[in-house]
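Researcher: Here's a chain I'd like modeled. Treat it as a single chain, no partners, no ligands.
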Amino acid sequence: MRVLAWNFLHGGGKRIPALADAVLAHDPDVCVMAESRTGGWQRFADLLAPHGYAHVSATPTAPGKNGVLVIARTPFHVLPAPHGPMFEQRWQRLVLEEYGLTMLACHVPPKISVGVDAKRAFWQTLLTHAAGAVGNEEVIVGDLNTGAPYRDEHRATLYCADEFLQLEALGWIDAWRRFHGPAKKEWSWVYPRRRSYGYRLDHAFVTPALADRLAACGYSHAEREARMSDHSILLLDLAPMPD
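Model: Modeled as a single isolated chain. C-alpha cells:
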C-alpha cells in the first residue's frame, strides 16, 4: 500500500493537470492532498478517475479556503471530525478496511492563517486523539506545519514543536525517521530564494501495531524543484496485512 501526501499550494489552479500527472507517476493507492479548494479538487479527481481512483472525499470549504482531499483506489468510510469549522475543514479520519487500518489525514493550520492559540488548540485535539488511538492500527499523515527543533529545521523557530514531539512520546512512530535516523535533515518545504534552508513539515506517523508493516518512507523533491508546488511529495509504503 502506498500513501502519497502533497500540498496543492492554494488549490492548484492552472497547475492541476501537471499535479495529476505527477501524482499518477508515483502510483499511489491513497492520495492525501492539502490545500484543496472548491472547483480545483473536482478537476483533479476527474483526471485521476480513469486510472482507478474512484473513491473521493473532500472537506467542505468556503471559496478561496483550503481543505483536505482524499482519493483512493478502494472504498473507505469517513468518520466524524471533531466539532468546529477548523476541524471540519482540515481533518479527515478514514477507515480503510482493505488495507487493515485507519488513517487521519489532516492539515494543521499555519500560524499566519489562524494565530498561535488556534494552531495550538488544533494540536491539542490531535494529541488527545493520538493518545486514545495509539493502540490501534492507525496512520496520521499530512502537512503538520511543524517539526522537531534543530532536526526538522536548522534552528528552533517552528510553532507547536513541543506538541509535535509529544506524538513520539505517546508511542507513535515517525515513519521517515524510522528509515533515515534521528539526525538526518531533509526539507519538504524550502525558502524560494534560499534553497538550502527549509523545514520538514510533511509527516507520516504510525502506531506500534503498524511498525512491522513499514516498508519505506521518503520524499520526492523533483516536483517542488519544478515549482509545481512549494512542498515536496511524501511517500509512505506499507506492506500488506499479514494472513
